[in-house]
Amino acid sequence: MRLQLCTWPEVEARLARSTGIIVPIGSTEQHGPNGLIGTDAICPEVVAEGAAERIDALVAPTISIGMAQHHLAFPGTISLRPATLIAVVRDVVQSLARHGFREIYFLNGHGGNVATVQAAFAQYHSEASFTGVDGPAPRLKIANWFAGRRVAALSQELYGEAEGSHATPSEISLTWHAYPDRARPMQMEPRLAPKGAYGDAFDYRRRFPDGRIGSDPSLSSVEAGTRLYEASVEDTIEDYGAFVAGN
Ligand code: NI
Question: How far is the CA of 134 from the centre of ligand 1 (A)?
């Protein structure tokens, strides 16, 4: 169930039987010549909603703008500074904790968010730690929709080295599963994008002129997206279930 479609009495009643919630978190950033700007937000959102439907979990609104400074040389990208994202995550956690949510599970779609969200968790926990007062505190986790065992194995089977690390055929396929009318099959030149490290947005665009890193998203398809969706929903149900159970 989406939190946005609940009434407050429904949320209150649900909290009496379950204190878990899934918070999709992504980014608004370029995803190569044929990838949607919203890819990193769309992917965890559809997986979270699919998993939640099957296990009657609650899904918060997607945090759809993340830490994407390195993509800012491409039109359409919107980024938060790391300090801003830390503040956003902290305020979301504090809001949910105030109501009694105790297992807060961020399902992430953007590798560039991970370090910052982990820093936000450390910041949140440190505030409680420094008070010296014990009390009910939420448990926090960030998991990537693409990193579960089923999805990782399927991405490898489908794409091998052509998966790359940005604008991957897996993530683009999943967005096409969600929005098939936005599918834009396209050949890539070079077929495999370059790989490597980067600094700021200027450096990124110089090294990766069409936005991709190491990937060949010409291999994307709606059919693959449907298989990846199923795999990620299963991975998420398993991992979220274990998290809520205390593991
Ligand atoms: Ni992405």
Answer: 39
Question: Ligand 1: distance of its center to the CA of 193 in Å?
Answer: 15
- What's the gap in Å between 26 CA and the centre of ligand 1? 8
pTM: 0.98
Cα 42 to ligand 1 centre (Å): 10
Interval 13-25: pLDDT, tens: 999 999 999 999 9
Given the structure tokens 């949607």, which residue do they identify?
A: 36
CA separation, residue 123 to residues 20, 53, 87, 89, 136 (Å): 21, 32, 9, 10, 17
Q: Which residues are paired to 213 by β-bridges?
A: 166
What does the alpha-carbon distance between residue 184 and residue 82 come to, in Å, rounded to a whole number? 32
| Distance between Cα 51 and ligand 1 center (Å) | 20
Query: Are 64 and 28 within 8 A, CB to CB?
Result: yes
Report how far residue 242's alpha carbon sits from residue 42's, in angstroms, rounded to the nearest whole number.
24
Could you give the maximum distance between any two Cα atoms of the chain, in Å? Answer: 59
Instruction: Please report the DSSP string for 105-143 in residue order.
Output: EEEE--GGGHHHHHHHHHHHHHHHHHHT------EEEEE
pLDDT digits (tens, 9 = 90+) for 97-128: 999 999 999 999 999 999 999 999 999 999 98
Cis amide bond preceding 190, omega within 30: yes
- 171 membership: H or E segment, kind and range: helix 169-178
Give 29 Cα–ligand 1 centroid separation in angstroms.
8
Distance 200 CA to ligand 1 centre (A): 17
